[in-house]
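Support reply, case 0932

Customer input (verbatim):
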Amino acid sequence: RTGQRVDAAIGIGPPALDGSVLSRSRDGADRALRVLLAHGGARRVATAEEVHVDALMLDLADLAAARGDVATGPVARLLDYDARHQSQLVRTLSCWLDAFGDVAAASAAAYVHPNTFRYRLRRVAEVGEINLDDPGERFAAMLQLRLHPAHHCA
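Our regenerated output:
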C-alpha cells in the first residue's frame, strides 16, 4: 500500500511453526534483506529461499574479506596485466563468462566489436594462462570475479 512513497525492502524467512525455529526464521529474513540491500534495491521483497545462493555468495565474500583473501591464479595474472597495461582483459573474461561463452552477447555487453572481443579473449587465455574449455577453471575464475564485484561485466 505504500506504493512509491516508501523505499522499503522486506526479507521473509522460512515459516516458524513453533518457537524452537523462530531464530532460524529470523536469520533467513535477515539474510534475504541483506541480499536485497546489497543488490541496490532492484527488488523490494524476497524470501530466504529465493535468494539463497546470493546469500551464500555474500557469506563467502565476508569470509574471504575476513581472511584477507585476494585473487589468485589466472584472475590475479589478468588483474596485474590490466593494471600495468590499462587493458580490459578481466572485464572481457567476466563478460564472456556472464554470457555463457556467447561472443556476440559478450561483445555487446562489453561495447566492443565481436572481432575485437575474440582477440581479447585469446589474450585472456594467453596472459591468464587459463584453459577456457575447462569447466573447473571457468568456475574458479567466475567465483573469484563474483567475490570482487568491481570486476563484473555490467
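We compared this against your earlier run and they match. Two observations from our side: The beta strands are 10-12, 45-47. The helical segments are 22-38, 52-67, 73-85, 89-98, 103-110, 114-128, 135-147. Please reopen the case if you see a mismatch on your end.
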